[in-house]
Amino acid sequence: MLYSEVIIAGGGPAGSSCAWKLNQSGIQTIILDKKRFPRSKLCAGWITPKAIKNLKISEKEYPYTLLTFKQLNFHFYGIKIPVRTRQFSIRRYEFDDWLVKRSGASVYQHTVRKIRKERSGYVIDNRFRCRYLVGAGGTNCCVYRTFFKQANPRSRKRRILALEEEFKYDYHDENCYLWFFENNLPGYFWYLPKGNGYLNVGIGGNFTSTKNKGETIRRHWNYFINKLEKLSLIKNYHFSPRSYNYYLKQAAENVQSDNLFIVGDAAGLATADMGEGIGPAVESGILAANAIINGSEYSIRSINKYSFFDILFPWRASSQ
Fold it and tell me: Same domain, yes or no, for 255 and 126?
C-alpha cells in the first residue's frame, strides 16, 4: 500500500494548486486522477488576473496559449454593454497538464471508489493511505459524497447545467461575447476565442428554473447556434456539444472535517453571477494547503461570491 502525507483526489486547478503549495513547503503529496494527463476537460476556460496572480504565473513564461481580452462584450436583454477589462482564455487541455506537472506531486491514474477512515488517517481502495485527504474531484467527488454530503447538502436551486464545445475554427472575430437572459434563459451564452485557432462556445443555465418552465437546455442551445449563424460568427459547422453540471457558491461552509478537505467544484464554489470556477478553485486549493501546512482552520469565507468585481477592477487583483 502506497503512503503519502497528503493525497489529493483530483488533478484539476484546485487539486494541482493545493499540491503545488504543499510541495513548496516540503510536504509529501500525491495526486490521484481518473484520467491521464493531458486530458480534455469541459470548461469555458476563462480565467481572471486574480487567478494568474494566485498561481504566480508569468504571462511571458507560460508555455501555452494565453489569449488576452481587453474588453468583454456583454449583452443584457439585447442591449450591448462593452466593458473594458483584462481577462484571459486558456485551453484546459494545456493549462491543467502544465499545472499538475508544475506542482511537483506524483500523479497516479486511479478512480477513487471507496474511502475508509482509520485511526492514523484514510485508506483509498486498499491501495493508498494518507494522513490528510483533499477532495478535488469536481461535482461528483468521492470525498464529498462519502464524508460531506449530509453536512454540506447542495441546493438544487444553485445547480447549473451547461452545454459546450471547443473546436478548431478559423474564426474572424477575436472578441469575447456573452449574452445574458436571452430567449428567457436563466443564465447566459458565450463565444470565447482561444489561441492557436481554437474556439469555445457554450451555454449555462439554472437547472431548476429551466425545468420548472418546461424547457430544456438543448432547446436553448439550438436557439444559440442559430444566433451564431445569423451573426456570421460561425458558419456551416456541425456541432456535437457535451454537457456537465456544477454548483454556484452557497451559504454552507462545511468544507473541513478532521483531516478531510474539499476544494473547487467539490465544495461548490463557482461564482453566483458568472459561474466562473477556475479562480475559486485555485483559491480554495491554496487555502486548504495553507491550513494543512500551518495546522489551522480551513475556510472558504474569503473567496468572493461574485466575479464582476474582478472584471471591472482587474488591476486590484489580490493573491493568497
Answer: yes
Last-in-domain residue among 216, 245, 274: 245
Q: Are residues 208 and 146 in the same domain?
A: no
How far apart are alpha carbons 304 and 308 in whole angstroms? 10
Domain of 209 in residue numbering reads as 157-245
Sign of CA dihedral 200, 201, 207, 209: positive
If asked whether residues 39 and 163 sit together in one domain, one would say no
Burial of 282 per CB tally in 10 Å (0-12, 13-18, 19+):
buried
* Same domain assignment for residues 227 and 169: yes
Long-range contacts of 235-241 (CB under 8 A, 24+ apart): 237/167, 237/169, 239/165, 240/165, 241/163, 241/164, 241/165, 241/202
Cα separation, 192 vs 101, in Å, equals 26
Clarify whether residues 201 and 223 are in a common domain: yes
Cα distance between residue 161 and residue 192, in whole Å:
18
State the CB neighbour count (10 A cutoff) for residue 3. Answer: 14
Residue 317 has pLDDT above 70, yes or no: no
Residue 135 has pLDDT above 70, yes or no: yes
Which pLDDT does position 319 carry in this prediction?
60
Q: Do 264 and 305 belong to one domain?
A: yes
Chain mean position to CA 152: 19
pLDDT number for residue 252: 61
What whole-number distance in Å separates Cα of residue 134 and Cα of residue 144?
10
Q: Which of 191, 210, 245 corresponds to the end of one domain? A: 245
Is 126 found in the same domain as 52? yes
Q: What is the pLDDT of residues 263-283, one digit of tens each?
A: 999 999 999 999 999 999 999
Within 10 Å of residue 275's Cβ, how many Cβ atoms?
22
Mean pLDDT on 131-160? 94
**Does 135 map to a domain?**
yes
Ramachandran class of 105: left when φ > 0, alpha when ψ lies in -120 to 50, beta otherwise: beta
